[in-house]
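User: Could you check the structure of this?
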Amino acid sequence: MESTEGVRRATAERVRDTRERLAVERDMWVATAHPEHGPHQVPLWFAWDGRAVWMCTDAASVTARNVRAEPRVRLSLPDTYDVVLLQGEAECFPDQEAPADGARALADTFGWDPRGEEGSFVYVRVVPRTVRAWRGERELRGRVVMRDGAWLA
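Assistant: Sure, the predicted structure tokens are below.
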């Protein structure tokens, strides 16, 4: 991997850029694993509330089943050059019991409110414990920008 940019960003700049991307991006890869059935990865819409990632999926989906069995997840934004990886534990809320702020964040972002749909959905909240961000090979060192739930800069 080779960087096309000659300047390595400082941690504070990486944190700022990561927060900005979380506020404007729409899609995120969600990687879960079931203790007996192994890994599963899907793209989902998400909303960032400044502290947590909010997603919604069908209550019977593989993602929902996996998170109930094993809440540790990895999330990633889709760009493979400007990498942002989040790690944390997911918490599920049945659609009719979802905290209003999380449900509203998704509804405001996408114009879709699963609480009014037929069928059962779950809202999934992930408060990241670790975030890694880098652009190209030059930024591999120092890529951790959040540790133990606290931004480093």
